[in-house]
Structure formats: C-alpha cells, structure tokens
Amino acid sequence: PFQQRGAHEIREIRQFHFTGWPDHGVPYHATGLLGFVRQVKSKSPPSAGPLVVHCSAGAGRTGCFIVIDIMLDMAEREGVVDIYNCVRELRSRRVNMVQTEEQYVFIHDAILEACLCGDTSIPASQVRSAYYEMNKLDPQTNSSQIKEEFRTLNMVTPTLRVEDCSIALLPRNHEKNRCMDVLPPDRCLPFLITIDGESSNYINAALMD
C-alpha cells in the first residue's frame, strides 16, 4: 500500500516488470508477453485507476503492450480486431507509438496466437483433473482437446530454416550431431568453455527459458 505523507487515504499500487524483452528486436515468441498481459489484467479490478505503461522511450514496447491489451479486449467483446486503426489512433496521441515494422508484425503474431490458442495456462493444483478432461474424445469430432491443442501448436510454431542453424551446420561441428535433422538454432545455443581456445565450443543442445 502507498500512503502520501499528510494524507489519510491509502492507495495500493502494483508494479509489474516484464523482463523477457530482448535488448534488440522483439521476443521470438509472444507467449510470454501474452501471459504477462493477462496477469496484469487479472490483478486490475474494475475499480482500479488507469494503467500506467512505460519502457525506455515510452513508445515502442509500450505501444506493443497497449495495442495487444486493447485488441485482446476487442476480440473478446466484438469478435474482431483492428490493429491498424488502433496503432493509428495511438500515434495521433503520442508520436512513434509502435516504432518499427518488426514490432508491428510482432503485435499481429501475438494476437494471432491469442485468438488461435487462447489461454492454456492451468493452475498446478488442477493439472491432473485438467489433463483427464483434455483427453476425453468429442463424439462429434472424434478428437480430444489435447490433440487439437497439439495441431494448433504445430500450426503456430515456425519451421526452422537452414540459416537458423548455421553454427550446428559448420563442418567442424558435424561429428557432434548424432542426427543432422535434429539441430539446435543459433539463438538457443549454449557454448562450452574450451581450454586450448581452438576446440569447438559447440554442443548439440538448446537452452530453454
């Protein structure tokens, strides 16, 4: 709770800090930010005051958060989204909201994921019962929720390109790959510490956050 000196009214202020945004570009997946937006919304009761959003410049990442928040509400309320006009409206009030094309594309990816996948988070105490329900067959589709989720997952997961795995494909690293069609992308590689400085620091593994 926050109380201003000399005042009798006590107000509660909650601060949320999203740490998954990289120094350059945008997050590779929108899943983390979508979960963050939902968490913020769940902790903001109808009686709460305005939400204050800021980043380093208060335009790029801030704009992404605000647009995603607005579009999630619009999708739920009206069944449609209008990202273009939302960004246009924000820019009429603050310059350079959503600064780059990469951020604009990321917003579309985030809303697409939210609309296709929904909120798939499950409280830890309910995993067992939820898993049981997810495996039940729908008599109309002859499919289960878990199968449908996996189909959606395959649909929204980008396929790795050759250039994404350039380090794994270097000739000096071939012998470290048991199977040449199971390779880690460069962005997820852990690097070994080498003693002589000449040995390859590559290992066929991927860091998971």
From TrEMBL:
<feature type="domain" description="Tyrosine-protein phosphatase">
    <location>
        <begin position="1"/>
        <end position="114"/>
    </location>
</feature>
<dbReference type="InterPro" id="IPR003595">
    <property type="entry name" value="Tyr_Pase_cat"/>
</dbReference>
<dbReference type="InterPro" id="IPR016130">
    <property type="entry name" value="Tyr_Pase_AS"/>
</dbReference>
<dbReference type="InterPro" id="IPR000387">
    <property type="entry name" value="Tyr_Pase_dom"/>
</dbReference>
<protein>
    <recommendedName>
        <fullName>protein-tyrosine-phosphatase</fullName>
        <ecNumber>3.1.3.48</ecNumber>
    </recommendedName>
</protein>
<keyword id="KW-0904">Protein phosphatase</keyword>
<feature type="domain" description="Tyrosine-protein phosphatase">
    <location>
        <begin position="146"/>
        <end position="209"/>
    </location>
</feature>
<dbReference type="InterPro" id="IPR050348">
    <property type="entry name" value="Protein-Tyr_Phosphatase"/>
</dbReference>
<dbReference type="InterPro" id="IPR029021">
    <property type="entry name" value="Prot-tyrosine_phosphatase-like"/>
</dbReference>
<feature type="domain" description="Tyrosine specific protein phosphatases">
    <location>
        <begin position="31"/>
        <end position="105"/>
    </location>
</feature>
<keyword id="KW-0378">Hydrolase</keyword>
<dbReference type="InterPro" id="IPR000242">
    <property type="entry name" value="PTP_cat"/>
</dbReference>
<dbReference type="Pfam" id="PF00102">
    <property type="entry name" value="Y_phosphatase"/>
</dbReference>
<dbReference type="GO" id="GO:0004725">
    <property type="term" value="F:protein tyrosine phosphatase activity"/>
</dbReference>
